[in-house]
Every structure is written in C-alpha cells, then in structure tokens.
Design brief:
The protein is α/β, with parallel strands linked by helices and 227 residues long. 48% of the residues lie in helices and 15% in strands. The chain has a domain of 125 residues: Response regulator (Rossmann fold). Helix 8 packs across helix 9.
Length: 227
C-alpha cells in the first residue's frame, strides 16, 4: 500500500444500497469510489476497465448467484480483492465464496466503521470474516478436515503468525526467512488442511484447535493476510 487512496467498486442490484454505500465511502479520505454495477455482466466489464483495488460484492445478482458471482469477478481481474457484502451467512455460501476467490465475507448488518476497517484490511492483503461468517464456516469445515496430516514446526510457526494477521513479508521478517519461502510454507499448509485460500486455512486450523481466531482485538472483523 502507498499513500494513494484505495479504489473501490460497489456491485449490488439494489440502487438504494449502492447509494448508501457510495455516500458512506465518500466520507473516508483514504478510499475512493470508482464505479458501481447492478448486475454481473456490467460488473465484470467495469472491473476489467476500471481495475479497482477492492470490489464490494453482493452474492445475489442478475446473471449469477453465490460463488458464481465471485468466480466471474475473479476471472475479470486477478488483482482486485473481493469483499463479499451480503445478507446470507449459510455455511455452504461462505465456504463456496471463499473457494471461488473471495478475500472476505461480511453481513450487511456490519457496522459502518467495521466495514471501513474491513475494506482497509483487505486492501492491505488481509482476509476478513465477520463473526457470523466465521462461525458458519467453522461449522461447515468439520466434515472437510483432512486425516493423518501433520504440520511441521516451521509450518506451525507460519500458521500462528498468519492467525495474528501478519502479511507474508511480515512473517518473513519475523522468522528471518525469505518471503518466497513463506509462500512455500503457506502452500503446504493449505494442502495439508485441504484449503484453497488463507481465510479457509485459518478457519479449518481453528476448527482443529491449531490456532485461535477472534474478530480482531477490538471485536472488529479480522482473519489474517491473503496470499
């Protein structure tokens, strides 16, 4: 992250929701709204053209539902980070969205200041889940846990630092290893846990009792770093 404002795009099929979010985001000096869309086709085209840093994405849109919407945005831009903002917190929806490439999952009941915190966290490369989504995903993950897998001591160190919200480069500095080595360890952790993203890995690790997760120190949403 530099000193430049984080660019945000809102994707929601309800005009009033878009207007409300746009007005609220406009109050934050470090965030800049660059576009809006009310359907998936328009969203995908706008994401390709505008290249926003963050896409605030509703899961129910004309043209796609659930994880399909996440996958379409991810296909439109590999660099944009996707923060799901939805009314649904069923375990299947949460895990499917994370598997499809979402970097965070929040309920539309999230407090305004917590939404801003989440947007900033995701922009810094972290993954966020609110408390309801974290609980839902944890319940769902019980049937998905691998058997017979063991993490090495170094992998446990990396996993522990992930759970504290450290980015790959921060973990590398803390452990005195190269950032690319951290990424190798992270890949092995994902494989052993049967996860496809850092958010999933942390949820599964918490379910196994390997790490302890909470919605940030202040009660705000938080799950760790992406990548």
């Amino acid at each position: 992250m530099t000193g430049e404002a984080v660019t945000v795009m809102i994707v929601d099929d309800h005009p009033m929701v878009r207007q409300g979010l746009a007005a609220f985001l406009g109050l934050a000096e470090d965030l800049r709204l660059v576009g809006e869309a009310g359907d998936l086709a328009g969203a995908a085209e706008a994401v390709r053209r505008l290249e926003p840093d963050i896409v605030l994405l509703d899961l129910v849109l004309p043209g796609a539902r659930g994880a399909d919407a996440v996958a379409a945005i991810r296909a439109a831009s590999a660099r944009a980070r996707i923060l799901v903002l939805t009314s649904f917190a069923e375990p299947e929806r949460v895990m499917a969205a994370l598997s499809a490439g979402a970097d965070g999952y929040l309920s539309k009941t999230v407090a305004p200041e917590d939404l801003l915190t989440a947007v900033r966290q995701v922009a810094r490369g972290r993954s966020v889940l609110d408390e309801g989504a974290l609980l839902a995903a944890s319940r769902r993950s019980a049937a998905r846990l691998p058997t017979g897998e063991r993490l090495t001591g170094r992998e446990m160190e990396v996993l522990g630092l992930m759970s504290e919200g450290l980015a790959n480069r921060e973990i590398a500095l803390q452990l005195g290893i190269a950032e690319k080595t951290v990424k190798v360890h992270a890949g092995r952790i994902y494989a052993k846990l049967g996860a496809q993203s850092r958010a999933q890995a942390l949820v599964l690790a918490a379910r196994l009792g390997l790490v302890s997760l909470a919605p940030q120190e202040t009660g705000r949403p938080g799950l760790g770093d992406g990548g």
